[in-house]
Amino acid sequence: MTATILPAAPAAIEEAARLLRAGALVAFPTETVYGLGGDALDERAVAEIFTAKGRPAFNPLIIHVLGLAEAEAHARFDARARRAAERFWPGPLSLVLPRRPESGLSLLASAGLDTVAMRAPAHPVAQALLRAAGRPIAAPSANRSGRLSPTEAAHAAAELGGRVALILDGGRCPVGVESTVLDLSGERPALLRPGGLPLEELAAVLGPISLAGDRRRRSPGMLESHYAPALPLRLEAAAARPGEALLAFGPQIPPGFAAVENLSRTGDLAEAAANLFAMLRRLDRPQFAGIATMPIPEHGLGRAINDRLRRAAAPRPG
Ligand code: TXA
Ligand code: MG
Questions:
Q1: What percent of the chain is helix, strand and coil (3-state, nearest 5)?
Q2: Same domain, yes or no: 196 and 291
Q3: Pocket of ligand 1 (CB under 6 A)
Q4: Residue 226 belongs to a domain
Q5: Element (H, E) at 133
Q6: Which structural domain, as residue segments, surrounds residue 10?
Q7: Quick one: which of 14, 39, 26, 66 has its CA closest to 137?
């Protein structure tokens, strides 16, 4: 089955909101990646999200809201959390907070935890959809579990096909990597996933942030292998191997690769993040023996890029 893709004009957004309220799933653009959305108050719709993605039920979802006022109905914000939301929302930051017991949010969305991840997206289409639906939207990235996240409507269609009622096409996602996930449920802020909001910016507002030693325990979704293309990935390659394609970064490209995509010729990390998943997808073709990557600086958005590349290169289960 193929998915219906509609340009994100007002009538299409209304239709998507109607589908959401009726319990169906819709894919929509955010500034980070495309999300697979369902009504966060509807246990059945949330169960459908797990099924459509083939996602293990222990991995909780992010709840999308319009802003702090709406989020406070579902999670407990202390002064520190309020400061983070006021400074960085709307934007690519998800906050893990104590869940209000009286919150009507699907229990499945939190995967049985007493915390909930909340984010207010900055993308105008995501905001218009939230407004039209009039309820929080649970939305993981719109890919099959463990695969590359979609940064274009066509990627979401290729990943989910007929498992989604409608895909809103809002063009390419400007940030290109998923939101930064910050745990504010404990004493010290802990980074659970580096993402579209650089750690340095968070630390400037919140002070020291721990890099969560045992991340797999703290964030169930941080499985070692993730974001994987079909081809094997080789990190920080210095020279070409036969038949290999190269995901390059910067002005100097080593010779001998069967194909090259350059994340950013000028070494711009924001440009590289925006290109990351689309370029990996383009290089992920059976005619190549594998994908090699070049070193990326470990600061700013480079942290999120390196995290995704390391996971894509990690040994795969099965
Ligand atoms: O940019 C994004 O965050 C995108 C767009 C669509 O908003 N969404 C996204 O969702 O990347 P997903 O489901 O692919 O990743 C959510 C991450 C997972 O690593 C999950 O384990 C973590 O957030 N997470 C969600 N709720 C959590 C909680 N209560 N405690 C710890 N980690 C949580
Ligand atoms: Mg994901």
A1: 30, 20, 50
A2: no
A3: 30, 32-33, 35, 59-62, 94, 96, 110, 113, 115-117, 119, 139-141, 178-179, 181, 192-193, 219-222
A4: no
A5: helix 124-133
A6: 5-217
A7: 39
Q: How many residues does the chain have?
A: 318
pLDDT digits (tens, 9 = 90+) for 150-159: 999 999 999 9
pTM listed for this prediction: 0.95
Position of tokens 């974001």?
Answer: 227
Atom of ligand 1 at shortest distance to CA of 92? 1
Contacts with 138 (C-beta within 8 Å, 6 or more apart), sequence order: 37, 38, 39, 40, 45, 46, 49, 61, 62, 63, 64, 105, 106, 109
Please report the atom of ligand 1 found closest to the CA of residue 218: 31
pLDDT in tens, 2-59: 789 999 999 999 999 999 999 999 999 999 999 999 999 999 999 999 999 999 999 9
Closest C-alpha to ligand 1, atom 30? 219
Residues 90 and 196 in one domain: yes
